[in-house]
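Our consortium's second objective concerns turning raw sequence data into structural hypotheses that experimental partners can test. To show how far this objective has progressed, the report includes one record in full. It was chosen at random from the queue rather than selected for favorable results. The single chain below, 521 residues long, was entered without modification.
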Amino acid sequence: MVAHILKLKLRLLGNGFKRSIGQLIGVIIGGVYALGMITMLTIFAVVSAGETTIASEISIITGSLAVLGWAIIPPLLTGVDLTLEPSRFVHFGIPQKTLGPALVLSGFISVPAILTIIGLIGASLIWRLEVAILPVAVLAALATAVMAILVCQYLTIMSTALRAKRRFRELTFALLFLVLICFGPIISSVASAAQSMMDWLAPLTNVLSYTPLGAAAALPGALASGNYAKFAICLVLAIVYLGGLYLLVNKATAEATVTPPPEQRAAKQSGLGFFKFVPATPTGAVAARALTYWFKDPRYAIGVLLVPVLPLIFWFSGNQSGDYTMMFLIGPIIGILLGFSISADISYDNTAFALHILTGVHGKADRAGRAAACFTLSIIPVLLAAILPGAISGQSWRIAGDLGLSLAALLIALGVASLASARYTYAVPLPGDNPMKTPPGNGVRVALTQLGTVGSMAVLLIPVLIPYVIGWIQKSAALGLVTLAVGLILGMTLLVVGIIVGGKWYEKRAPELMQAVMLNK
C-alpha cells in the first residue's frame, strides 16, 4: 500500500506537468533558476573548502534557513501540494500505520523537496577536504532536509483550518509583502555590519545548533573542532527532533482523516457600511462599493501597504548614503501608485461587474465613483508626504512645490486610470486567490498596458515638473506656488477629461468589458 501511494504521487506529479504547456515552461524556467542558485551555492562551498574559518557557522546558517523557509513559506503563505491530503483518504479505510508513513514519504516527492535535498548536499561540500567529516556532513544535510520537510508537513496539516479563514490569509500576505519590500534594506544593513559579523554570528549559530533548525547541521562543525561533547548532544537532539516530528506528523495525519473540513462562515455585516456616508446617487453608490473593496479586498493591499513602507525605505536609504533627496519625492510617487491602482478596478470586479451592467450605471457615474473612493483614501497620505519632508527639514520654501507636484500626480493618475480601465482589462488574481498569484496568459500584453498607462501619467506630468525642477534648483518659493497652481489646474482638468471620456468608452464597450472580466483576460 505504501508503494502504491508513492506511485500515485509520482503519477500526479507527472500529470501536473502535462496539464498545460505554459505551466510546464514555467516549471522548467523556475527549475533552471533554482538549479542555477544551487550550482552557485555548491561552487561557493567547493571553493571555500579549507579557505574559511567559519565553515561550521556557514553550515548551521544554511541548514537553519532551509528549515525555517519550509516552516514559514509553504504552510502559512503559499500553501503546498495537498493532492494527497490526509482528509482525502477518509473513505478508504486504510490503516493509520500504513497511511501515515506513506503520506510522510510522499511529501519528499516534489520539485521543491528534491531541490532542497540537492542544495543542502551541495552546501555540505564545504567539508570536502575533510575525508572523515564529509560523510557526516552529507548525512547531516539529508537529516536537515528531512527535518525541513517534516516541519512543513506538520505545520501544513495544523494550519489548514487557519488558511481556510480569509483574515488569516490576508494577514500572512501583508506580512510577506512587507518582508519582501524591506528585504533590500535588511540585506544592506547586514552588509554594512559585515566587519562586526563575527560578533553576532558565533553566538547565533551556537544557539541554533541546539534547536530543530540547526541541530543536524551543527554535527560536522562540532566533529571538526574536536568538540565531541557538543557533537554527542547535537546528535541526540537531532534524533529526538526527527523522531518527535515524525510522531507528530503521524498523529496529525490520523486526526485529519477523521476530522471534517472546517466550515466556511459568511461574514456578518450590520448597518449600511460606507453607503451610509455617501450621497444617494449612482456615483455615491459606486464610491461606497469601491471603498468597501479597498478595505476588505486584499488585492488592493499592495497600494495601501506601500504608503507607510516607502518613507521607511527612502529614509533608510538616505541614512546609508547621506542623501535624503528621495524623501521629497514620496508624495508624487504615492500619488501615482495609488491613482494607478484603480486601473485594475473593473478587472478586480470579476462577476460582480454585472451589478453595474444590469442596473444601468452610467459611464461617468462609474468612473467618478471609483475615482472618488481612491481620492478619499489617498488625499491624506499624499498631503502628509508632500508637507512633512519640507517642514521637518526646515525647507519651508519647497512645501508649495512638493504639494503641487504630489496633488498633480494623484489627480493625473486618477484621470489616466479612469480612461485606461474603461479601455483595457487584463488577467488578475480572482477574488479569494492569493493576491501575489500571477494568472497565466497575456503576460506581455499586461506588461505593455501597464507600462503605457504609467508612461502616459509621467508624460502628462511634465508641465508641472518644469516649474518644480526650476524652483528646486533656485530654491524659489514663488515657483513653488506656480507649481501648485499649474498642478491643481492641470490635474483637475485631466481628471475631468478622464472621467468624461472614460465614461463614454465604458458605455460603448460595456458588453466587451463584461465578457473580458468574466473570462479574466
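The partners drew two points from this record. The chain has a mean pLDDT of 80. DSSP finds 23 helices and no strands in the chain. Both points have been shared with the crystallography group to help prioritize constructs.
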